[in-house]
Amino acid sequence: MSARRNFEWPELLTADGRGIAFGGDYNPDQWSEDIWDDDIRLMKQAGVNTVALAIFSWDRIQPTEDRWDFGWLDRIIDKLGNAGIVVDLASATATAPLWLYESHPEVLPRDKYGHPVNAGSRQSWSPTSPVFKEYALTLCRKLAERYGTNPYVTAWHMGNEYGWNNREDYSDNALEAFRAWCRRKYGTIDALNQAWGTTFWGQEMNGFDEVLIPRFMGADSMVNPGQKLDFERFGNDMLLDFYKAERDAIAEICPDKPFTTNFMVSTDQCCMDYAAWAKEVNFVSNDHYFHEGESHLDELACSDALMDSLALGKPWYVMEHSTSAVQWKPLNTRKRKGETVRDSLAHVAMGADAINFFQWRASAFGAEAFHSAMVPHAGEDTKLFRQVCELGASLHTLADAGVQGTELAHSDTAILFSAESEWATRSETLPSMKLSHWHDVRDWYRAFLNAGARADIVPLAYDWSSYKTIVLPTVLILSDADTRRLAGFVQAGGRVVVDYATGLLDERFHTWLGGYPGAGDGLLRSMLGVRGEEFNILGAGAEGEPNEIRLTDTRDSSTMDGAVTRLWQNDVTVAGPHVQVLATYAGEEADEWELDGTAALTRNAYGAGEAYFLGCDLGVSDLTRFVSGWLAVQPQSSRQPQVNSQSQSSRQPQVVGATPDVLHTVRQSDDAIFDFYLTRGRSDVELRGIAGEPIVLFRAERGSDGGAYTVHRNGVLVVKRPNPSL
Asked: What per-residue string of b and e applies to 343-378 under the rule 16 or more CB within 10 Å gives b?
């Protein structure tokens, strides 16, 4: 990995500058100053110690091109600081003032149809516009000059959710920037022609001035996939460059305070190459919004697992999440009993040392008026605000106990995530347009939890050589270099699990030849000991055609017998002498597609290690069976208390590391270990044999036996014990 900025954590206004940061986005400029003192009173009541300020306030700071107004910002920063609340000050560039658009309409982005993206929302500006950048950097310098030495401003919050609205810009500014980007990347037009395969459909270019961006070309036209992938990379890079320009403009004046920007890793969002972004911040931050339904906690933990990897094990920052419902979904479900506090403590359990919400006070108007907040429309005498206060007290307790700065204990399994594979699965040129790399990452993560273990989520670009097991879910794009890393890992004794649509393409979006999966000029096939000829794609759209195929085991055990695949099946032949076929396709439906008896799941000895191939898509329940039956999951901790679900009283007590009922994480320092236990299901869970001092009991009680606890639905138990390594 290339060098990254030093880790720096923003200080609080405590005696030692430490503590778990707690607060949220604060928008005092939306309210009369008469309400500010009441805001401060309620913040102190709730235990708030930090706010993000001025994120959307450019027009208040610079009402006209030649007039600046910092008075209101000075007053609120002083009020907050005097109350012991620090400020994470935004660069305020997320929204530009309307006067700028009126004076310079050329800063507006354009959509793929060539239409200007009109002003009035967030990020209605082109990241490649030199005019916009000039105004934005002037604003950054003005803020740095005024607040760079302010003791109440302890961190800089650059932009806001870069890429939310303006990542795909098709303006002439973007075209020129894309041409320059291509020139830097490829050097010669011949290299670019080769990378994009421009001999297909007569797209060869004679010079970089002929390079195009993938604008709309007609309803039935398909974009060159190599071109589109590079445009995705470019969109990521141009926004990262804009962030760095803002950061550096402030750092020239104020170099001694940490910088961050809020990533978007949650639900169905993971749109940027955050492995690259993480190198450019002093501390990693994320906006996480919950996924309704039974996978709520699992999805949160999965997103957080990636954040922990991006932070390289250092603490990270929840910049935004919601106290309850949001307002931007077709159906906006509020949180169930206990989930507001549980979700926040779950983030801490996964390595976060800052818990912040969008936003402090629910807006009385605007697009997000019905987005939940720390202080709802109904005010302080509400269940929601009481939960916020309860959470503040719990975070203070955890901070006093020494949680801050401890590191999340890692698993021995890594599920690999690739931003480029996520972008690639959106292509309309693949065998199926229903692929989702990030969705499959989450399914695998849930399968490990269901099997009683917890996997890490690690970017493909990072070093994962210390793990015992590596899983590649729908990693469509594998370079030759990454394939060789995988092969070396297995040869050295590691275990690799390759999913059904992995290793089909190289980094140029060229198909690897010779049979599937062909990554590394056939090295991946050799490692797996299989060779695929064709893909079988199912779907409910074809009337009368089968929409699922079942699997059957080929051994005495019934681990995978009856498993079902509904999307993608590889038609493979066994090509290695040491390959063990674990399951095959079976039944009438399989026979119709010439798959009956064809290998669906295989294992191959390779060097000192082993490589598994899952030749078809499987749901979470079937993946759980595979993980439990074949990956021999080991619990993450040597101390394993007993657990029993009250709804299944006949079940024999099991260790936490081997039950789906509890998510157990460990945060540790040189002298202490913190065990976090969170219930995953609807039932109460009984824990026995718990060692250590209870720190937080949220929806949990201690039993008469000192090591026994009952944790209710959406409950959290945190205990502290000495680190036995001392």
From this structure: bbbbbbbbbbbbbbbbbbbbbeeeebeebbbbbbee
420 is catalytic: no
Kindly state the greatest CA–CA separation across the chain.
Answer: 81
Strands 672-679 vs 662-668: parallel, antiparallel or unpaired: antiparallel
Q: 552: which strand partners?
A: 584
Q: Which residue has the tokens 């806001």?
A: 160
For 364-379, what is each residue's pLDDT tens digit? Answer: 999 999 999 999 999 9
Report the 10 Å Cβ neighbour count for 220.
5
Q: In Å, what is the CA distance from 30 to each residue of 57, 70, 366, 657?
A: 9, 15, 10, 48
Query: pLDDT, tens digit, for every residue of 543-593?
Result: 777 889 999 998 756 789 999 999 999 999 999 899 999 999 999 999 988
Q: Spell out the residues 6+ positions from residue 444 whose beta carbon is closer than 8 angstroms to its own.
A: 415, 455, 471, 473, 499, 623
Q: What are phi and psi for residue 286, nearest 5 degrees?
A: -145, 145
Q: 11, 161, 339, 422: which one is catalytic?
A: 161
Q: Are strands 456-459 and 413-417 parallel, antiparallel or unpaired?
A: parallel
User: Which range has the top average pLDDT, 125-134, 161-170, 634-643?
Assistant: 125-134
Is residue 259 within 8 A of residue 155, CB to CB? The reply is: yes
The residues, ordered by sequence, that sit 6+ positions from 585 with a Cβ below 8 Å of its Cβ are 549, 550, 551, 552, 565, 569, 595, 596, 597, 598, 600, 616
Per DSSP, helices labelled H in 252-287 are: 274-277
- Structure tokens, 565: 């695949």
- Provide the 8-state DSSP code for 116: B
C-alpha span between 509 and 502 (Å, rounded)? 13
In the 8-state DSSP scheme, what is residue 554?
A: S
Q: Which two tokens stand for residue 548?
A: 């699922």
CB 288 within 8 A of CB 266: yes
Please enumerate in sequence order all residues whose Cβ is within 8 A of that of 439, keeping only pairs 6 or more positions apart, or say none.
268
This prediction's pTM = 0.95
Distance CA 712, CA 189 (A): 63
Axis-axis angle for helices 339-349, 383-401 (nearest 10): 20
For tokens 């091109």, the residue is: 65
> Is 161 known to be catalytic?
yes
At residue 590, what are phi and psi to the nearest 5 degrees?
A: -65, -40
Provide CB contacts within 8 A for 572, sequence distance 6+. Answer: 516, 530, 531, 532, 533, 598, 599, 602, 613, 615
Q: Are 538 and 621 in contact (CB under 8 A)?
A: no
**Beta-strand relationship, 469-472 and 495-498:** parallel
Q: Domains in the chain, ordered, with CATH?
A: 413-630 (3.40.50.880), 642-722 (2.60.40.1180)
HEC string for 615-680: CECCCHHHHHHHHHHHCCCCCCCCCCCEEEEHHHCCCCCEEHHHCCCEEEEEEECCCEEEEEEEEC
**Catalytic annotation, pick one of 11, 168, 320, 420:** 320
Does the pLDDT value for residue 637 go beyond 50?
A: no
Can you tell me the distance from the alpha carbon of 388 to that of 209, in angstroms, rounded to the nearest whole number?
56
List CB contacts of 381: < 8 A, sequence separation 6 or more.
Answer: none
- As a whole number, mean pLDDT of residues 701-709 equals 91
Residues 75, 474: Cα–Cα separation, whole Å: 52
CA–CA dist 440, 17 (Å, integer): 41
H or E segment and range at residue 482: helix 480-491
Cβ–Cβ < 8 Å for 1, 312: no
Q: Is 105 helix (H, G, I), strand (E, B) or coil?
A: helix
